[in-house]
Amino acid sequence: MMLAAGGTGGHLFPAEALALVLTRRGHKVVLVTDARAEALVDTFPAERVHFVPSATLTGKNPVALARMAVANGAGFMRSMRIVRGFRPDVAVGFGGYPTLPPLSAARALKVPLVVHEANAVIGRANKSLARHAHVATSFPEVRGIQGALSETHVGIPVREAVVAAAAPYEAPADSFRLLVFGGSQGARVFADLVPPAIALLSQEQRARLRIVQQCRPEDMDRVRAAYAPLLEGFELAPFFKDLPARIAAAHLVVSRSGASTVAELSIIGRPGLLVPLPGALDQDQAHNADALAALGGARRLDQKAMTPEVLAAELTSLMTDPARLAGMAAGATGLARPDAAERLADLAERIAAGDTP
User: Fold this and answer.
1) Are residues 27 and 151 in the same domain?
2) Claim to verify: residue 93 and residue 133 sit in the same structural domain
3) CATH number of the domain enclosing 92
4) Lowest mean pLDDT among 50-59, 127-136, 270-279
């Protein structure tokens, strides 16, 4: 099995979950990704990890298009050598422009393709491949899929630590634990908006509040200085290796709405205030947030309309309504597919064997 994924956690973590299942079933696995992944693949369960050149379309000017063509052309030639050497029975892609060279090479050499779409709207790289591939989806309904060889809802594969963290929601009593994070690189908007929102809460509410917040290193000092006179308990860090356990310990999560985050909230079963990343061409995070909100598991807050006053009002409303929080936690589990990695492995095996879903 050849897996291809963009070099960010949102693409690599589902690939890692699938690779673990495949290796346990006795399959040989290789991963093809880009250079950004070097710090994330030390423990990836594959016989070998290949880094190939690739480029994302960042503009339509001739120079940008030429650079993209050169990088992806080099990546395609490198991928052709990998596919010829490894001879995979199936190639599974997890989205992002870095998957185009290896999956295009696999297709050129008659290897059947599966692409996993993590979001509630298909990404551009996956969309360009869908007509030649079997598409596996994270959400029951995904916008923009056209002409795929087949379409199968499997869920989004998550790390074992996420499934292990799932536990019944316990409504807040004396303390209220708030978790704030913004993806692998953090989100400056939360450093800008959450501290002044906390300052607007009543003294009684602040006395109950315990905050764990992801901050970029350059924002750490100012966030710490803002919280120091307001809160008795807070913890700041640029990255949390034990994020699933921290989600499970939270009474409420404030975060972006990437596909992996939405999957983790749904499997662990925790309520969220979701702030989609603005400016995305496909608005994938907005669609993800809407899918969870439709089940009552989250509230979507658009960044352009979010002020400290708006966030403070949302926090006040939820902190004083434990029954509503418990209902949101239950609603979030409506998207949960804890066996998604197994289901995707089943699909990959069927395609490799020549069976059509």
Assistant:
1) yes
2) yes
3) 3.40.50.2000
4) 50-59
* Strand order across the beta sheet in which 298-300 lies: 233-237, 209-214, 176-181, 252-255, 272-274, 298-300
DSSP state of 75: H
Instruction: Say whether both 8 and 128 belong to one domain.
Output: yes
Q: Are strands 298-300 and 209-214 parallel, antiparallel or unpaired?
A: unpaired
Tell which residue, 235, 258, 302, 245, has the closest CA to residue 14: 258
Q: How many Cα neighbours within 13 Å face the side chain of 260?
A: 22
Cβ–Cβ < 8 Å for 331, 295: yes
- What the block records as the tokens of 179 is 């978790």
Total domains in the fold of the chain: 2
- Dump the DSSP string for 325-354: HHHHHHHHGGG--TTHHHHHHHHHHHHHTT
**136, 30: one domain:** yes
Q: What does the pLDDT look like over 144-177, one tens digit per residue? A: 999 999 999 999 999 899 999 999 999 898 899 9
Answer yes or no: do 236 and 135 share one domain. no
- The two three-digit tokens of residue 336, written as one number: 């949960």
Closest CA relative to residue 178, chosen from 33, 315, 285: 315
Predicted TM-score of the model (pTM): 0.90
Instruction: Give residue 275's domain range.
Output: 163-335
- Per DSSP, the three-state class of 258 is coil
Cα–Cα distance for residue pair 234/216, rounded to 1 Å: 16
Q: Is residue 357 part of a domain?
A: no
- Are 248 and 153 part of one and the same domain? no
Closest CA to 191 of 206, 180, 202: 180
Going by C-alpha positions, the residue among 17, 120, 29 that lies closest to residue 344 is: 17
Sheet holding 30-33, edge to edge: 48-51, 30-33, 2-4, 91-93, 113-117, 134-137, 150-153
Q: Are residues 345 and 291 in the same domain?
A: no
Task: Say whether both 198 and 88 belong to one domain.
Answer: no
pLDDT digit string (tens) for 314-335? Answer: 999 999 999 999 999 999 999 9
